[in-house]
Amino acid sequence: MQPKKLFSKESCKNIVALCDINYTGTLDYKEFSQLMTDVAALKMIFKKFDVDNSGRLNGFELRNLLSACGYKVNKQLLIIFMLRYGTKGSLNFENFVICVFKLKTMIDEFCKRRTTDLDDHINVNRNDWLKTTLYS
């Protein structure tokens, strides 16, 4: 009997790219260890907010989960998450993980580039922006 696959090959490639902070195409021990810790934590919180135990998060469940994690997203971003990562109005665990890693990566990149802690604007050159958005 083969073990149950949690993630597709394409999802694994996406997750590696999102966690590969030094752009090597692979994960070193520290990056891999952090990935495993994060996936375990995401699995627990996914189950907690999947109130109907469907194995999927609808838009309301996702909004509540993200808010509980400190990510305040507006309605437009929530719709974008569901369109990009969801299927038929909900997210399975695999796509949820990719969605959260993408959100975290983009917020981390934003915070690295903003000029002050209170500023909602960043300065970024085209190559840095393309590197971040295309690889992650």
From TrEMBL:
GO cellular component: cytoplasm; endomembrane system
Localization, UniProt: Cytoplasm; Endomembrane system
Protein name per UniProt: EF-hand 6 domain containing protein
Domain EF-hand intervals: 37-72
UniProt cross-references to InterPro entries, sorted A to Z: EF-hand-dom_pair (IPR011992), EF_Hand_1_Ca_BS (IPR018247), EF_hand_dom (IPR002048)
Keywords, comma-separated and alphabetical: Calcium, Cytoplasm, Membrane, Metal-binding, Repeat
Any GO molecular function: calcium ion binding
Keyword Repeat: yes
Organism expressing this protein natively: Asbolus verrucosus
Pfam families recorded: EF-hand_6
